Amino acid sequence: MILLFWIGLGSAIGGSVRYLLDLLVIQVGIDVLPFSTLFINVTGSFLIGWLAGNRTTGSVATPHSYNSHFWITGICGGYTTFSTFTWQIIEMIKAGQGQEAGLYAAGSVSFGLISVWLGFSIAVRKRIIAEKFGSPIQFYSRESGDLKVEEVYGESFLRWAYGNPLGRLTIVLIVKRFWFSRWYGWRMDRPKSHSKVKSFIWKFGVDVSEFADPVESYRTFNEFFYRKLKSEARPIAANESVVAFSADGRHLAITDISVADIFYIKGQRFNLACFTDDTDLSREFEGGSILISRLCPSDYHRFHFPIDGVADPADRLPGSLRSVNPLALRRQLSILWENRRERTVLKSDLIGKVLIFEIGATCVGRIHQTYAPGSVSKGDEKGYFSFGGSCVVTLFKKNAIRFDDDLLEYSAKGIETYAKMGQRCGEMPYI
Q1: pLDDT above 70 for 404
Q2: What is the percent of the chain with per-residue pLDDT over 70, rounded to a whole number?
Q3: For this structure, is 261 an active site residue?
Q4: 335 and 324 in contact (C-beta within 8 Å)?
């Protein structure tokens, strides 16, 4: 009885709206075919498609509820009218308007099918996007041995900016522009930005015992952001065959980038040629391995060399500055090769060339290289980022590295592993 009540109420509402639209068409004086019935059936078909799309998970429809019966069976059933449509066709034929009747029938069926498909498709796409951006960002913590939910700096803005059409327009027009990040970086270099330091430390639980300098010594937020740590805070993994993480952060490891299709979300592939911006290098590293190390604003923002070798000078590659947070990368992995970045070739006697990229992001004022080209050791400082989220990507040639099991296990699910600079990420298998 309750279900019948909701269906009846919906039918009454839908029928009343249809009647009011008929009156409106009469008042306006539109007299091209039975326009009101065509409009009603087409918009009703779109609404049914939209509602059905919102009730579908994968390819399976969810069970009917009172709510869906109210809207689909009730409102849409009362709003649309097949009987009036067929009666109008008969009346047109009787009036000698056979051609118009055929046009009306074909148009109604065609536009109705297109509308229901369009409504369904838009609803499904909207739901998929909502699932991408609505789900929390999880990562595996090596330290605790379990999954954690990331507390994202500026999360509400990121979800709006990358999950909303108006937000994406804002990204294109303003946020990704270099001047915006320079302006924000300038703000973080002003003396009054110092007031943000203590509240940031408290909110994100930053460990002050690791700092090389007292908190009071940081004159600006940026000085705190690219702070140095005590040498004992980041011990470097021993053994020349072991590869160390270049930076603190959340890491994603892929053994063969040429076949992988899970980067933060299934279905995305990595464009090596665009990323390296060098045809010869992309050929050398085809089928190679990649380690993406994503740094959050709360992380230690200096980056280091993962192995011993000889480092060439860094090459600066132009691009925009968008967020490298998974909320953005889930939607568009190409951000990694469209953002500004710096590329360094590191030559190792043990495994040949390794490519190291520092990738800028929204509000990263600059990438600072502090190393001197030439011979470097594992764990040596390479440089640091100014304020903002950022990313270090390391490329290895095919079979040059065997990543650790936990790193591969979670990366295969699109889940990052949190580990600190200097800890091992894998080893050279033939050493």
Answers
A1: yes
A2: 82
A3: no
A4: yes
The answer to whether 301 is a known catalytic residue is: no
Identity at 271, one-letter amino acid code = N
pLDDT of amino acid 59: 45
Helical spans, DSSP H, in 246-351: 272-276, 279-284, 326-329, 335-338
Of the candidates 304, 323, 348, 404, the residue annotated as catalytic is 304
- 304 catalytic, yes or no? yes
Q: Which residue among the candidates 115, 193, 246, 248 is catalytic per the annotation? A: 248
Least confident of 44-58, 166-180, 218-232, 260-274: 166-180
How distant is the alpha carbon of residue 222 from its chain centre? 26
What are 115's two structure tokens?
């509308």
Q: What is the pTM of this model?
A: 0.67
**In one letter, which amino acid is 108?**
S
pLDDT tens for 280-323 read 999 999 999 999 999 988 899 999 999 999 999 999 998 877 77
Q: Which of 201, 225, 190, 204 is nearest to 153 (CA)?
A: 204
- Distance CA(290)–CA(177), nearest Å, equals 27
The pLDDT of residue 60 is: 44
The one-character DSSP state at 60 is: E
d(C-alpha 6, C-alpha 392), whole Å:
56
Q: How far apart are CA 271 and CA 250, in angstroms?
A: 21
Whole-angstrom distance, CA of residue 181 vs CA of residue 323:
11
